[in-house]
Amino acid sequence: MGLGSIRIRVVTNRDEIPSLEQEERAVHLAFRPSDKDLFSLVKTCPSIEILQLPASSYDGLSKFIKMYLSSSGIHLVKGDVSGHWHDLNNYFVIPSYVLEKIKELEVQGRTEEEIIGEVTNLRKISPDMILHLLHSSFLSPGSERPEMNRV
Questions:
Q1: Which helix H or strand E contains 93, and what residues bound it?
Q2: What is the rounded CA–CA span in Å between residue 109 and residue 21?
Q3: Mean pLDDT in consecutive groups of 10 residues from the start of the chain, 151 residues
Q4: Does the residue 128 lie in any domain?
Q5: What are the annotated GO cellular component locations (predicted)?
Q6: Is 76 a domain residue?
Q7: Is 55:30 a contact under the CB 8 Å cutoff?
């Protein structure tokens, strides 16, 4: 049984947050969110597990918000959705072949740096996202979260 793809919902402005699906598990905020925006996101999407922010937004978050997100079970990831056109699709997709490559490199005993290097050459995905996927139970057989926005 192969791994499914991961869909990351791309949100370009705060007005989109209330209209998000409750089942969203991975979200990328392409704008600088306020604390209120993040609280609204957690309330709107109670199943969220991964929140990706551009580096400038990530670096501007307060320690309180980072702790709040962490205590809410949300893994904060720094990175962009390179090559994504929001006008065409609301989701940035990490294809199954990328997830399978991460798993294959891990099984081969490659270092985190080697895995990041190979995967970023394969597909533009942030190093933080690759590390999250590498260390999450999502890549493990019998994962507890098999329905994670699979395509």
A1: strand 91-94
A2: 38
A3: 78 95 94 95 95 93 94 92 67 90 94 94 89 77 42 38
A4: yes
A5: ribosome
A6: yes
A7: no
- Give the pLDDT of residue 78: 93
pTM for the model stands at 0.83
Check: CB of residue 53 under 8 Å from CB of residue 80: no
Q: Identify whether the C-beta of residue 49 lies closer than 8 Å to the C-beta of residue 7.
A: no
Indicate whether 149 belongs to any domain.
Answer: no
Sheet holding 91-94, edge to edge: 75-78, 50-53, 26-29, 6-11, 91-94
Q: Do residues 127 and 133 make contact, with C-beta atoms less than 8 angstroms apart?
A: no
Consecutive H or E run containing 51: strand 50-53
Retrieve residue 119's tokens.
């995967």
Q: Which domain holds residue 88?
A: 6-139
The total of structural domains in the chain comes to 1
Do 28 and 11 form a contact (C-beta atoms < 8 A)?
yes
